Amino acid sequence: MEALKTTLTGRAEVLEGLAEHPAVKAILAWSPSALADAKLDRGELTLTIAAEAICPAAATVQAAGYNFFEDLTAVDWFPSTPRFQLSYHLVSHIYKERIRLRVLLDGDAPSVESITAIWPAANFYEREVFDLFGISFSGHPNLRRIMMPDDWQGHPLRKDFPVEGYR
Amino acid sequence: MNAGTPILEAAVPTGAHDQHMVLNMGPQHPSMHGVLRLVLEIDGEIVVRLYPEIGYLHTGIEKSCETKLFQQVVPLTDRIDYLSPMANNLCYCLAVERLLGLEIPAKAQWMRVLLAELTRLNSHLIWLGTHAMDIGALTVFLYTFREREEILRIFEGLAGQRMMTSYFRIGGLSVEPPLDFFDRVQGFIRSFPEKIDEYANLLTGNPIFRNRLQGVGILSAADAIALGVTGPNMRGSGVDFDLRRDMPYSGYERFQFKVPIATEGDCWARYLIRLTEMRESVGIIQQALDGMPQGPIKADAPKIVLPNREKMKTQMEALIHHFKIVTEGFNVPAGEVYQGIESPRGQMGYYVVSDGSAKPWRVHMRNPSFATLQAIETMCKGRMLADVVAVVGSIDIVLGEIDR
């Protein structure tokens, strides 16, 4: 419960308050510039990673003990910018703890490198985000729609996609 | 991107074999547990490649959630995994309660644990019945449905609904359990261990059942982690991790239970794990009954939790709150929360993002079956076609939660 009450906002505060955290330590040791932002909110640590650095960052936290890829999804912040947020949830079986890696992407032809080479489990999740948000993942072995039919137009979970009626 | 290209094309093998064949299993097939389509490339009877095609049940629940008030999402979560509605309710409520910073009273927490474990029994009973039926042991199905019926009757007495219970609320439970609830649960779990012995007698010593499962669908521990497999399937491969024990929620840290582990990673190991899990669940339910605290079942938060009927009819304040919650909902502080729980099928997670309004900005469900399905090719490759049925049965998937 104590951890839930602590809130650290901003990169500097997290680096000071959680300097010994295994994931923070590993990322700083690898490349401090890749860590764009960080926060600890409601007991959850969020590390914002520069979009082009997601693959090496994922490999770094994997080596630091966050061995299990649990979830990947996107959030559409339309009409704010940057429009898309990718949230990677990773679990450590050793520390019994979860972290979130966050990547921010622009709304214009969003694309990011696939992490399927690090966690094959991300395969379906990246396809789902591609299908429903239209974010493409370079280097994905089979990037095709997973929920919607192959010939579907548009990406249903985008905020500018209507909830009902004809388009 | 790949629209129009076939999902799988049969490779022309080198050597003297005949050409490989592409075979569709499903989407309408009795052993596919819903509308799952498996595209298989087979060499005679040997599976060369396998590709699961999903999305036939996609109803856009995540999109619907964004148009509803926070409390209106609860009934939608029932419909994701129709065999374990309480687990979905629990996971969503815990996520929103963490966003709100609500303290849940002890009785509600214990009731939630009790119901989550009853749901686990319910789900495992269906799994056992249908899995055994796939393998050809038809009798077990009738026995497991006999016990499941009693669980559904208990749920009906509690929530008025057999399957889509929607009994949990943000901030607690919807109503007090009926007077005979605890006695019925006690009666059920008193006789249930004998019933598990009965299933074990029918199946564990049955040479046909054993031969169909042992050594079939092997998944190594490394593959299980790499492919995101969780729950009993992961523990059957020797990975010792259970969210109830390792990252406890809703008061699970106060319960004593064992987490069964097997190292073989085959269908047989998964069968034994689930059978043992049912026995452990009975133990947890007994502890919940014995130690059930007294007190309120709803958090003390009049602007979030609906007042009870009597208060609403007699107090002006309560009437106003009731009206406001029902018409406008309540604002949830901005932020994002990922809540994971151990559902009957594995690690379930709800990722709820709020922008500070009364409707969720984004609700995402991480469902165990979705990830487990990725491992099916690894388990079936190089095996006989008939083993695919055994594997699909043993990993216990529900298509409702895969497609959402």
Trace the largest sheet of chain A across and list its strands. Answer: 1-2-3-6-5-4
Low-confidence stretches of chain B: none
Derived from helix and strand composition plus strand pairing, the structural class of chain A reads alpha/beta
Q: How would you sum up the global shape of chain B?
A: globular
- Level-1 CATH class name of chain B: Mainly Alpha
Quickly name the level 1 CATH class of the domain at 2-109 in chain A.
Alpha Beta
Mean pLDDT of chain B: 88
Give the tally of structural domains of chain B. Answer: 1
Query: How is the main sheet of chain A built?
Result: 6 strands, mixed
- Uncertain spans of chain A, ≥5 residues at pLDDT below 50? none
The helical percent of chain B reads 40-55%
Sequence of secondary-structure elements of chain A: HEHHEEHEEEEHE
Query: Which architecture of chain B does the CATH hierarchy give at level 2?
Result: Orthogonal Bundle
Q: Would you count the extended β strands of chain B for me?
A: 8
Using a beta-carbon cutoff below 8 angstroms, give the protein chain pair with the largest interface and the number of residues from each chain. A-B, 46 and 43 residues
CATH-level-4 superfamily name of chain B: Cytochrome-c3 Hydrogenase, chain B
What is the CATH H-level superfamily of the domain at 2-109 in chain A?
NADH:ubiquinone oxidoreductase Nqo5 subunit
Q: How is the biggest beta sheet of chain B arranged?
A: 3 strands, antiparallel
The gist of it:
The complex is a heterodimer of chains A (167) and B (404). Chain A is an alpha/beta fold. Chain A has helices at 2-5, 11-17, 22-30, 54-63, 122-133, and strands at residues 8-9, 35-41, 44-49, 68-76, 84-92, 97-105, 111-113, 136-138.
